[in-house]
Amino acid sequence: MMTYPLIDPVAIQLGPLAVHWYGLMYLVGFVAAWALARFRANDYRWEKSQVEDLLFYGAIGVIIGGRIGYALFYDLPNVISNPITLFKVWQGGMSFHGGLLGVLIAIGFFGRKSGKSFFEISDFVAPLVPLGLFFGRIGNFINGELWGRVSDVPWAMVFPTGGPLARHPSQLYQAMLEGLLLFIILWWFSAKTRPRAAVSGLFLLGYGCFRFIAEFFRVPDPQYGYLAFDWFTMGQLLCVPMIIAGLIMMIWAYQRKT
């Protein structure tokens, strides 16, 4: 069993202003996405101003969509009883699936402004997303939240809020799968010319599969528990349409070969 590193969730305290690691990790994720987007801009013949506008819309979409998605999918009764919690981003509670919907809406707005097609934008954005997911999961780990199921593997940890039993550090599993590994796959895949929408389809397929696998090691959200068969979770349920959509998009993309 490994020792969970107790880390103060507040990274910087400036008088009454507290900068939390969770929020800081999202900031690092956005900076990483910005740097990668600037690097890709020349290959895709994008202007630097277009990159910055897209990331601005995307950041708003992630934050608003992620919080609203979390409220709708995982914490609706609490948010209804205490709406102010919707704005407490530093306490955790961001839904990837909600954030994805927010980004899709942001892509639609940016497409109307720039004259670019939806899939042209989404193919450009898709490889940038996993590093943001990586840093977000590291933020979950620092917060000591979203820990895994009880386990006796050598790297299991006792989390401060997870009781006395050692558990899978499932946040790190997700950081590696949905973050680092998915980034490597998408970056390699998009390095060569692919049919329009293929990169976006691979992102949906890859994330859906990796998240589905990671959910086997993660404790389900207590308000839902297991939905079926003592293992199927809300996170896995939300991944099913992503996997199906990703497969359909890749088949459609290679049939059209645009």
From TrEMBL:
Catalyzes the transfer of the diacylglyceryl group from phosphatidylglycerol to the sulfhydryl group of the N-terminal cysteine of a prolipoprotein, the first step in the formation of mature lipoproteins. One of its GO terms (molecular function) is phosphatidylglycerol-prolipoprotein diacylglyceryl transferase activity. GO terms for biological process: lipoprotein biosynthetic process. It is an enzyme of class 2 (transferase). A 1,2-diacyl-sn-glycero-3-phospho-(1'-sn-glycerol) binds at residue 137. It is a multi-pass membrane protein. Its main location: membrane. The keyword Iron-sulfur does not apply. The chain crosses the membrane at residues 20-39, 54-74, 94-112, 124-142, 172-190, 197-214, 234-254. It comes from Methylophaga nitratireducenticrescens. Keywords: Cell inner membrane, Cell membrane, Membrane, Transferase, Transmembrane, Transmembrane helix. Its EC number is 2.5.1.145. Pathway: Protein modification; lipoprotein biosynthesis (diacylglyceryl transfer). GO terms for cellular component: plasma membrane. It is found in: Cell inner membrane. This is Phosphatidylglycerol--prolipoprotein diacylglyceryl transferase. Belongs to the Lgt family. It comes from the Bacteria.
